[in-house]
Write a structure and sequence with these properties.
The protein is built from no helices and 11 strands. It is globular. The strands form 2 sheets. Strands 2, 4, 5, 6, 9, 10 and 11 form a 7-stranded mixed β-sheet that branches. It has a 4-stranded antiparallel β-sheet with strand order 1-3-8-7, with no helix packed on it. A hairpin with a 4-residue loop joins β7 (68-73) and β8 (78-83). The protein has 125 residues and is an all-beta fold.
Length: 125
């Protein structure tokens, strides 16, 4: 049984930072690119970042570019999202997910097969 477990969400003031973590249990990490997505109330889920299996290539949506950094530690089966300079518009439920391919080719939701449970990030003004 595959589990994708997230942690690190919470409430933070605008301008602050959070680091989200995502650990995969029950399935090898080998070969999987991974991504971060978010969904604000009343809006569609959007892809915000992706990282290749090797960590050698990354993708960021324009809305988070320059503020968020995606990374991974394959030895720990863990994905991270460092979020700096947070804004109220970053408030959303954040999800991580795996893709059954080693490279990122956009952030279409259908590319990703195993999903975390989501963690809430709330940024106050």
């Amino acid at each position: 049984q595959v589990q994708v477990v997230q942690s690190g969400g919470g409430l933070v003031q605008a301008g602050g930072s959070l680091r989200l973590s995502c650990t995969v249990f029950g399935l090898t990490f080998d070969g999987d690119a991974m991504g971060w997505f978010r969904q604000a109330p009343g809006k569609e889920r959007e892809g915000i970042s992706c990282i290749s299996w090797s960590g050698g290539s990354t993708y960021y949506a324009d809305s988070v570019k320059g503020r968020f950094t995606i990374s991974r530690d394959n030895a720990k089966n863990t994905l991270y999202l460092q979020m700096n300079s947070l804004k109220p518009e970053d408030t959303a439920m954040y999800y991580c997910a795996t893709r059954s391919f080693s490279e990122c080719s956009g952030l279409r939701l259908s590319y990703f097969n195993y999903w975390g449970q989501g963690t809430q990030v709330t940024v106050s003004s």
